[in-house]
Amino acid sequence: MQSITPNPAQATTLPTTPLALKDIHLPEQITNYPIAYGWWILASLVLLIIVIAIIKFKKSAKRKQVKKQALSQLNNSIEMNNTELISLLKWAAMHYFSRAEIAQLYGNLLHQFLVKKLPEKYQKSFSELSEQAINNQYQAIFQNNVDKDFHQAVRLWLTKALPPKPIIQTQPPIANANIITSSQKPNEGVSS
User: Fold this and answer.
1) Rounded Cα gap, residues 20 and 83, in angstroms
2) Least-confidence region, from 52-61, 156-165, 182-191
């Protein structure tokens, strides 16, 4: 058996010129800029929602301002007589409803108007507390009377009826087939 011995000439045949290696470079730091378009859109939407919320809040506060003033006056003047309480009710109502309509109301008509503007669950208690004071407002006996029940009724109406809720029409439009024109007889044009 022959043993293989390494050739000393082969061991020294390594290249004498150094290899052209470069140092290891780390990649550049990744930045958050420029921000992707999706983040700009999200930021715009959030800003828009905040602006809309602020506008709605200011409108709501402005809408409730008269109600707060009336309640403040009611709380500060506990000894208001019935005439002053009715004037306060009419003043507050004129800011939310038609001034021409409310200015001419008095007595039973005013009472009916105020009851109609309340939610149904408060109508009965308001009516019981206020009916006598409103209907008798022009009688000398009741004008300067301080009525605690009427005071409660005014507070109830101011807190529950103001500001009024928008009315949504739920009635469908009338179909043309059911309308009777002046040239038709009452039985014509109406299908059974």
Assistant:
1) 105
2) 182-191
- Number of residues that this document lists for the chain: 192
- pLDDT band for position 54 (cuts 50, 70, 90): very high
Q: Residue 57 has which token pair?
A: 């809040």
Pair 71, 53 in one domain: no
Residue 141's pLDDT band, with cuts at 50, 70 and 90, is low
146 and 80 in a single domain? The answer is yes
Global pTM reads 0.60
- Residue 182 predicted with pLDDT over 50: no
Are residues 51 and 89 located together in one domain of the fold? no
Token pair recorded at residue 145:
């009377």
Say if residue 37 is in the same domain as residue 126.
no
Q: What's the whole-number mean pLDDT along residues 144-154?
A: 77
Do 48 and 97 share a domain, yes or no? no
Spatial CB neighbours of 126, under 8 Å, sequence gap ≥ 6:
114, 115, 118, 153, 156, 157
Is the bond leading into 186 cis (omega within 30 degrees of zero)? no
Same domain, 58 and 113: no
Q: What whole-number distance in Å separates Cα of residue 151 and Cα of residue 130?
A: 8
Does 99 lie in the same domain as 54?
Answer: no
Please tell me the distance from the alpha carbon of residue 45 to that of residue 14, in angstroms, as a whole number: 68
Residues 6+ apart with CB under 8 A from 145: 81, 82, 133
Cα 31 from chain centroid (whole Å): 42
